[in-house]
Amino acid sequence: MTSLPWQQILLSIGFLCAIGLTLSILLILAEKKILNYGTCNIDINNGDKNIPVEGGSSLLSSLADNEIFIPSACGGRGTCAYCKVQVNSGGGITGPIEIPYLSKDELEKNVRLSCQVKVRKDLEITIPEELFSVKKFKARVTEKKSLTHDIIEFKMELISPADIDYKAGQYVQLESEKYKGRDSVNRAYSVSSIPSDKNNIELMIRKVPDGICTTWVFDHVKTGQEVAFSGPYGDFGLTDNDAPIIFVAGGSGMAPIWSILRDMKEKNINRKAIYFFGALTEKDLFYTEELMSLEKDLHDFKYIPALSNEPDKSSWQGERGLVTDVLKRQIPDMAGFEAYLCGSPGMIDACVEVMKESGIPESDIFFDKFA
Amino acid sequence: MKESPSEKELRERLGPSIFSGEGFLGNDTRPVIEIISNDLALLDKTGITADKIAELLTEVYNKAVKGFGADVEVFPGVYGKYNESMGKIPSPFTGEGVFPKGEVVVRYSASGDEMVLTPLSIHLIKAHGFFQGRGSRYRIEPEKAADLLKLKQ
After folding, report:
1. Is the ipTM of this complex over 0.95?
2. CATH topology for A134-233?
3. Considering the entire predicted model, what is its pTM?
4. Start-end ranges of CATH 3.10.20.30 in chain A?
5. Domain A245-369 carries which CATH code?
6. Are A11 and A4 in contact (CB under 8 A)?
7. At A205, is the pLDDT very low, low, confident or very high (cuts 50, 70, 90)?
8. If you count residue pairs, one on A and one on B, with CB atoms under 8 Å apart, how many are there?
9. pLDDT digits over A154-172, tens only?
10. A91 — contact with chain B (CB < 8 Å)?
11. Do A251 and B65 touch (CB under 8 A)?
12. Where does residue A313 rank: exposed (0-12), middle (13-18), buried (19+ CB within 10 A)?
């Protein structure tokens, strides 16, 4: 008896599904049993640290298992491109998921997304030195203070570990909790507190419309609540020389500069410094009195707030205009200065152009772009 | 040839994620392919291509960024206000790179209408003809965007 055509089709489909399923199971078994990579060595920074790990996991998670935390915001899904690491050997070929996130220069230097590199054999990698001191912290929120209509100061007291070492200018990654169906995320915020206060961390956080982490911070986190963060990250901070300094910031870009200035005061760093803070109107300024007071406490410091949208008829006596214009007016010749900037990419790009035209070499301009 | 993603896969990619709390579809229940084809049909009536729209929107965005948060008249009767934001957001389509998170709120002074531009939303229009779903904060109405060309001249 011959079977009907639809029966043959169903049989064929079933047969193909069975083959596909068998092959998938075989592949998974092969990965687990046959492809046993054994113990692989991760050599970090030319032998500064050697970590034996069980092969088979991603480089990102293998490092995290050994308490070396590479910044990451997507949990290893290959989409945030934060977890870049230079892989000198053993990393295999750069995958198609990674290529769009890597510049030509990074590709030439074998920079990889560590979440996409599988540890299959011994690896040699290079990471910034400061990542060795990154830890995961638990902390208790002690205060949420409004600084402007959309920026708050977020204070935390450390629980475990109970203290933190960092340089003024560095940042941490705050981990939001799940809320209203939104997943936990990690977002970077510059530290605004002073490094000498090792038991507390302060951040300045601006509310972003629909921002997952900032909505959590503004609308869901309560004083007294336990939160988690990792850090410190980043290499933004004062160099060790006597060159006079220009600081430029806007909005929550105040955070690292506020930390650096108070650190300068504590350490009696007597470098000449001028701080330009760009804002729209007077109500967008904060810590003005404290910064004016630093003019007396620091050796040679001047604070210059610049308002670009302050009504003409207001009582504001200070500088008016875009911060770039005020900068040019106040310091026509910037040769010999070092510059430290923190703020939006647009403001930083424009300031860097002004500074280069006015005599500061690019190598003496340091910035923490919101990018 | 690369297979087109299924509707289910598209909705997953464009829905809420750890990068975009609200996702890109708003409350639009139409299939993604229909959203795209309807918007491209609307755009077609204006005689402007998605590439040209993306170019115009980029021009508006770049002009507004230079205001550092103040209103900038980007074209006659069109104002843009840049809102800073920290970090970058990846395209929901894997492998297309990451985009700065800042946004520009565009206001048409005659009508009071507004739309919000981001580098990612401009990229989605250019690369996929995707103007985002209705109800999304970042949806750009194709005809409204096309009006920019008239206002520029």
Report:
1. no
2. Elongation Factor Tu (Ef-tu); domain 3 (2.40.30)
3. 0.82
4. 39-131
5. 3.40.50.80
6. no
7. very high
8. 114
9. 999 999 999 999 999 999 9
10. no
11. no
12. exposed
